[in-house]
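Task: sequence design from structure.
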């Protein structure tokens, strides 16, 4: 982001707030996932999830939904109006018995302030994995 400030007679000053143009905060419709990574714990009952999103102006909500191989909910976590671009959380798998493969679906959205509580979904990504100790998977977004 560059701000031009006229200073004095026929002078102009450029102020750069961001050295990297990729780091410029984006409007809500342009916010995207940059990376989604999982790592299964040694006992196979917890999944560490790393999420990275593009810089934003308005704070988005991130929903992480985990389904097992039978299509049943195995975990759910919602990060409401995050302040951070890079987030690390742990989701505990609810299943008594493993039901591979698991699918993690990440949704990035904004809630309306209207009474109808509609969601403006701006991005979604998912990855599938087996809940085996040390299993690691990463999804990296492509450039727009």
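Answer:
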């Amino acid at each position: 982001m560059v701000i031009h400030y006229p200073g004095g007679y026929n002078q102009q000053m450029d102020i750069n707030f961001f050295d990297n143009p990729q780091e410029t905060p984006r409007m809500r419709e342009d916010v995207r996932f940059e990376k989604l990574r999982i790592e299964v714990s040694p006992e196979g009952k917890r999944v560490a999830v790393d999420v990275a999103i593009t810089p934003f102006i308005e704070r988005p909500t991130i929903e992480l939904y985990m389904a097992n191989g039978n299509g049943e909910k195995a975990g759910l976590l919602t990060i409401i109006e995050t302040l951070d671009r890079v987030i690390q959380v742990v989701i505990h798998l609810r299943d008594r018995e493993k039901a591979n493969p698991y699918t993690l679906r990440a949704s990035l959205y904004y809630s309306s302030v209207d009474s109808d509580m509609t969601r403006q979904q701006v991005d979604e990504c998912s990855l599938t994995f087996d809940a085996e100790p040390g299993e690691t998977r990463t999804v990296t977004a492509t450039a727009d």
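The chain has a mean pLDDT of 88.
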